[in-house]
Write a structure and sequence with these properties.
Blueprint lengths: L25 E5 L4 H12 L3 E6 L2 H11 L5 E5 L7 H13 L4 E4 L14 H23 L7 E5 L12 H21 L5 E7 L14 H6 L12 H12 L10 E4 L11 H4 L11
Parallel strand pairs: 1-2, 1-4, 2-3, 4-5, 5-6, 6-7
Helix pairs in contact: 1-7, 3-4, 4-5
Length: about 280
């Protein structure tokens, strides 16, 4: 399946239900064209879900559609999730093409970091718009069409559970997503719609690859994780699918850290424990 007919600049016109007899569930995934979102789309496709893939980049969406079309029905929506009209339009596309929406995966987010005193209003607004307002709007739109048995899974961060140096607005919005997940669970769980959050530790994606091997990055992440390998996008996708599936059908309102034990332990690797301490006065 190609992009929705008439789709330009975030618009998808003239969409019609693809198969009225198809009872396969439908998932809408934001930030679907790369990293965790792409791995999640692949996971749901293998399980027989039909997919609405939302992302900004048309080229990457084209590649995702080409890769998954042989195994499932997929329609792509190219648009900026920070634009107020995009969430409702994406949900409308799901209903026009497939006639149902069973799962929403809020994955798109901003990775911008800065200490509070270094955060100007431009950065503040950008991160809030992408990482908090957009998931809220997608939830609001999805709740208008979801039926009992549906699920919302939001991708947050371990830095919404603990503070981080220079975390600023990034940590604040990730904590906000936990609050959103809990209030959704309280309000809509009794109606059969579950809401949960996956909080990955640091996962190697396009957002983190440029400083993955940097010494400072390794010290606060890999060297403080009591596990013998790094986390992967597949790990996160598997957790998201579990929470959305019948296997997780009694899990509601939870925020699950997927971090190899980083948030719940005081682990230091042997090299860090045996390192020579540098007096603070000598640190520039």
């Amino acid at each position: 399946m190609n992009l929705a007919p008439g789709m330009e600049n975030g618009h998808a016109a003239n969409g019609t239900a693809s198969n009225g007899a198809n009872r396969a569930p439908v998932v809408l995934i934001t930030g679907a064209s790369a990293g965790i979102g792409e791995a999640t789309a692949q996971r749901f496709a293998r399980e027989g879900y039909r997919i609405v893939a939302v992302a900004r980049g048309r080229e990457k969406l084209d590649r995702l559609v080409a890769a998954l079309s042989p195994i499932t029905e997929i329609v792509a929506f190219a648009g900026d999730v920070a634009e107020p009209h995009v969430p409702q339009q994406a949900v409308d596309l799901a209903m026009a093409r497939f006639g149902r929406l069973d799962c929403l995966v809020n994955n798109a987010g901003s990775g911008r970091w800065a200490a509070v005193h270094e955060t100007d209003d431009s950065m503040l607004n950008e991160v809030v718009d992408i990482s908090l307002k957009a998931p809220f709007r997608f939830c609001r739109a999805a709740l208008g069409v979801m039926k009992p048995g549906s699920a919302i899974v939001t991708v947050g961060s371990t830095f919404g559970m603990v503070g981080g140096l220079s975390g600023g607005i990034y940590c604040a919005v990730k904590a906000g997503l936990i609050g959103l997940t809990q209030t959704l669970a309280a309000e809509y769980g009794a109606k059969g719609i579950r809401s949960n959050l996956v909080a990955p530790g640091v996962i190697k994606t396009d957002m983190t690859k440029d400083y993955w091997d940097a010494d400072f990055f390794s010290r606060i992440n890999q060297e403080m994780t009591p596990f013998d390998r790094e986390g992967t996008t597949t790990d996160v996708a598997n957790a998201i699918y579990f929470l959305a599936s019948d296997q997780g059908s009694y899990i509601n309102g939870q925020s699950i850290a997927l971090d190899g034990g980083w948030t719940t332990t005081k682990f230091l690797c042997k090299e860090a424990m045996l390192a020579e301490r540098v007096p603070h006065s000598k640190v520039s």
